[in-house]
């Protein structure tokens, strides 16, 4: 969904990726900053570009920005920035900033081939690791990689099953919160979406653009919506793909204790269940020649999946527990090609009692730090500091049962995805909670997949309604975001919009280029952007 995207298949918790706010912060906190978009006294950072690595087509730089925009002369932090220059000599329009929902220095090179050819020709494409994440000044609550691994091993993968695992799971995240509070409590209060939106405006100034061209997917959509309302006059073009409903993100800016988690307010559980149902139905009709898990028909394949889940609850296959398997299933629905075919193979292995091979990580890009530390606390710092979630750890089991009643196995995963927020020690110092309808200099294009396992199509509809001047482009396809699940129709509309400012007609719909389980489907190069929040799975 929405949080940070993981750069590897085993850390897909990042994807919608980044995260949410937690508590009842006074809505007026930081209001003067929000109204002004940040103080003008913060100087634009200097970007000294150089090749990221020998033979790389990408350039890297480091930007230094204020930790606290209310105190621009105080502590500074570093942002790792990456650029691919426009490939069309003499045809360059400007810079397109891209937020993939996670660490851009890793994910932008992986996602770069998925951008329309004309966009690559006419724009420098720039991304960055948001503050608190990856290769930028990052939240890291452990003294060593070994310490982090030991912590991760102490909790259930995916989500806890049974009273004993629930107790250990809650205790693990309580321990993580204590560690984070000791390490750098000030940083934790300044990794909000509003802080990152101000960083984005600083980067816009650093590359010399008078107005912003931006494409954000997954969590990058709520970042874009925040920028559009902090700096409405500075928007030239903005694509928000895999949108998060702003009112769900902020819990309607209510001062009351939240009843649901961010993801349950968004409806991530329901949309994951609907997408899983499509996966099983299409697998069943495709037959075993194209989908290894097929039972020869849609209903028979759904029944087979339910039987497998019941078996795994009683008898895991090696390390493949019920919780881990459900997490892998939901995460693997994000990218249809080759993700759905590979998922079917793993499920069939488990059905036969064989230990499944986890999905391999994507190739590491040619950057100085291709596999930065992306611990749970990085997504948590954004999610828990920025979006309200229940503070009572005892509430999450009841939420799980309610989510399971409406969304089955996927509901259990999404119910626990924000449990780490129950004990999180920090609240964003200057969050943005609305309004969301400030008129922008140019209209915004919102893109939504009908069957997205993380960010529901209904959220894209809500985002398009909430923004002052936005149009919704519907992709009648599958997977998390249209960028990661290519549609030539979507690409054509996005290209015309970015280049000429031309929006598609209201009500326009597109379809994916290749249906699921089609062996002729091209396999996109790139990572998987997901959102699984704090309770993502390890595969």
Structure, explained:
The longest helix has 22 residues, at 395-416. Helix 7 (193-206) crosses helix 8, helix 11 crosses helix 12 (298-314) and helix 12 packs antiparallel against helix 13 (322-332). This protein has 18 helices and 10 strands. The model is unreliable at 1-40 and 521-539 (pLDDT under 50). It is an alpha/beta fold and 539 residues long. Strands 1-2-3-5-4-6-7-8-9-10 form a 10-stranded mixed sheet, sandwiched between helices.
List keywords for this structure.
single chain; alpha/beta; 18 helices; 10 strands; 38% helix; globular; disordered N terminus
Brief digest:
The chain is an alpha/beta fold and 539 residues long. The protein has helices spanning 31-36, 104-111, 117-122, 145-153, 163-183, 185-188, 193-206, 219-230, 246-250, 262-266, 268-286, 298-314, 322-332, 339-351, 376-386, 395-416, 457-466, 488-500; strands spanning 50-51, 59-66, 76-84, 94-99, 123-128, 212-217, 235-241, 444-451, 470-478, 509-510.
């Amino acid at each position: 969904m929405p949080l940070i995207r993981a750069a590897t298949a085993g850390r897909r918790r990042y994807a919608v990726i980044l995260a949410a706010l937690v508590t009842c912060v006074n809505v007026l906190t930081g209001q003067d900053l929000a109204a002004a978009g940040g103080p003008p006294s913060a100087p634009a950072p200097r970007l000294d570009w150089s090749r990221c690595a020998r033979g790389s087509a990408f350039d890297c730089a480091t930007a230094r920005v204020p930790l606290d925009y209310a105190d621009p002369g105080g502590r500074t932090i570093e942002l790792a920035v990456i650029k691919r220059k426009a490939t069309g000599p003499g045809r360059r329009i400007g810079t397109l900033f891209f937020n993939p929902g996670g660490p851009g220095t890793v994910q932008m090179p992986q996602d770069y081939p998925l951008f329309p050819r004309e966009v690559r020709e006419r724009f420098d494409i720039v991304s960055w690791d948001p503050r608190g994440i990856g290769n930028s000044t990052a939240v890291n609550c452990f003294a060593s990689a070994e310490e982090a691994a030991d912590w991760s091993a102490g909790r259930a993968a995916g989500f806890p099953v049974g009273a004993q695992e629930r107790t250990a799971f809650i205790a693990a995240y309580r321990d993580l919160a204590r560690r984070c509070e000791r390490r750098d409590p000030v940083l934790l209060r300044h990794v909000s979406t509003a802080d990152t939106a101000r960083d984005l405006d600083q980067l816009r100034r650093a590359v010399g653009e008078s107005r912003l061209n931006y494409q954000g997917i997954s969590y990058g959509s709520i970042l874009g919506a925040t920028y559009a309302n902090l700096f409405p006059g500075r928007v030239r073009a903005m694509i928000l793909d895999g949108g998060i409903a702003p009112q769900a993100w902020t819990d309607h800016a209510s001062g009351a204790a939240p009843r649901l988690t961010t993801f349950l307010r968004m409806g991530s559980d329901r949309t994951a269940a609907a997408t899983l149902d499509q996966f099983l139905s299409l697998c069943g009709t495709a037959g075993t020649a194209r989908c290894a898990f097929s039972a020869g028909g849609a209903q028979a394949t759904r029944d087979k999946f339910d039987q497998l889940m019941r078996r795994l609850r009683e008898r895991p296959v090696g390390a493949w527990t019920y919780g881990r398997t459900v997490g892998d299933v939901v995460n693997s629905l994000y990218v249809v090609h080759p993700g759905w075919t590979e998922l079917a193979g793993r499920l069939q292995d488990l059905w036969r009692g064989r230990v499944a091979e986890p999905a391999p990580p994507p190739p590491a890009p040619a950057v100085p730090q291709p596999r930065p530390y992306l611990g749970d606390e990085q997504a948590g710092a954004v999610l828990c500091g920025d979006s309200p979630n229940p503070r009572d750890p005892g509430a999450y089991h009841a939420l799980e049962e309610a989510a399971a009643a409406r969304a089955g196995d996927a509901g259990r995963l999404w119910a626990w995805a924000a449990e780490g927020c129950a004990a999180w020690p920090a609240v964003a110092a200057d969050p943005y909670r609305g309004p969301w309808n400030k008129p922008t200099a140019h209209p915004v294009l919102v893109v939504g997949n009908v069957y997205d396992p993380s960010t529901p199509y209904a959220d894209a509809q809500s985002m398009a309604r909430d923004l002052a001047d936005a149009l919704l482009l519907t992709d009648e396809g599958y997977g998390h975001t249209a960028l990661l699940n290519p549609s030539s129709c979507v690409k054509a509309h996005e290209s015309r919009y970015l280049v000429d400012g031309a929006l598609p007609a209201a009500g326009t719909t597109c379809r994916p280029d290749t249906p699921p389980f089609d062996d002729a489907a091209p396999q996109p190069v790139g990572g998987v952007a997901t959102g699984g929040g704090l309770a993502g799975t390890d595969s």
